[in-house]
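Friendly challenge for the regulars: who can give me the structure tokens for this chain first? No prize, just bragging rights.
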Amino acid sequence: MNRTMLLIAAALTVFTLVLIGGIASYLSVFAPATAAPAEPAPAATTTLDPTVEALIREREAAYQAALAEANQRLAEMNQQLAAQQSQNTAAVTTAAATPAYPVSVEQAQAIAQANAGGAVLMRAPELVSLQGAPAYEVMFDRGAIYVDAQTGAIVANTVTSLAQSGPISQEQAIAAATTYLGGGTVVKVKREYEHGVDAYEVKFADGSEVYVDAYTGQVVYAKVKNADQREHDDKDD
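First reply, four minutes later:
Bragging rights claimed.
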């Protein structure tokens, strides 16, 4: 009986395999062919109107030009800002490095103008080193005068004389004398020889007298009243 059952099972297995093979053959013969994937349709090409295209290009060029100009202006502003910061730093450094001396800039200028012979001041005095000593360089239109920053003495005078062009005027003499005294009210001016020099005698209301060389404009002699009303003489050696 077992043998019979095995034969029946084998027969069923063979039948099943034959049936499956037949179905597979049928499907392979009669099944519709698989369609090849369709190629994508070419994209439609859009053609712009030449006028519109030219306008777009023109606006693009204008935008690029404006952008370049803005970048250039920004770079220039950055350069100016950097230069200003550098100048400010240099000014602060110079101010911090400049020591204080007994003679101030204003005093040095007054001393130089009193001995400049009517020359025109070109700029404010600058502190320099002259032969290793601190001095103020006071520039005029006809030269320079160097004033010792410690004592106020004139250590060098390169201002050219006005002798070739004639004597100075009374107004110039008054200006030189007033500058020498640092102010005052002039009551009388006359021209005379003082200590062998052709000079203007400039008298002030407080009794002071200043003699100014009529050709060079320099103070050659002075009688100055001090705060105690005591008279003392100053001579230009």
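The first strand starts at residue 126 and ends at 130. The chain has a mean pLDDT of 76. Your move, everyone else.
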